[in-house]
Design goal:
Layout lengths: L1 E10 L2 E11 L4 E5 L6 H9 L6 E6 L2 E2 L5 H4 L4 E4 L11 H8 L3 H5 L1 H11 L1 H5 L10 H13 L5 E5 L7 H18 L2 E6 L2 H7 L2 E6 L2 E6 L1 H5 L2 H8 L5
Parallel strand pairs: 3-8, 3-9, 6-7, 7-8
Antiparallel strand pairs: 1-2, 1-4, 4-5, 9-10
Helix pairs in contact: 3-7
Amino acid sequence: MLDVAGLSVAYGGLRALTEVSISVAEGQFVTVVGPNGAGKSTLFKTICGVVPAQAGSIDFDGASLLKRPAAMRAHLGIAHVPEGRQVFKTMTVHENLELGAYPAAGRRQWKHTLERIHTLFPILHERAQQLAGTLSGGEQQMLAIGRGLASAPRLLLLDEPSMGLAPAVADTIFERISQIHREDGLTILLVEQRVAEALELADRGYVLETGRVAMEGSYQTLMADDRVRRAYLGMGEA
């Protein structure tokens, strides 16, 4: 479904990504992990068209995304839940969800999708008329994910969904993300710093370091790697 090949991105002469290649098949859950500054969010911004690519290719369903303006990519079925949630704070919860349903598929499936969002996150139904800015951090993250789902996407990009959340709240968010993939079969690409939890959810994982793919493989492969265990899990050699 999504193929990123040899992607390079530079900001003001500084290289943010260097020949990054990742692949996400339809129905897969793929995770990209790595430290701050590794280029994870830049990868998502380039896929969505917010940041231009310097070299390489990004194909979605066999067609080049780089030839499509950013505004068109959501209509292809790509939803981006950004780092830091970025809900519309002066709008109600329901209005935020309605905005997410702007793409044609979202409008067609709005009634069904809204019911699904309320099933996953009942608090969003309870607080439908509450201003988004008055929600807690965890509730705002639920709203951000719900807004992404409202577009009825084929591919959901989740950028650091646990950021700034208490561990118990982050656990709940991960449980819902896993439920969405398991029950709805939605293709998910997740960027996350909580390495163990993120890799455990995924069919395949990539480790991004200083803008390059340092390692890739299944959960078992990456968790068995001494480098991953030492650098990201604080564990010694097995």
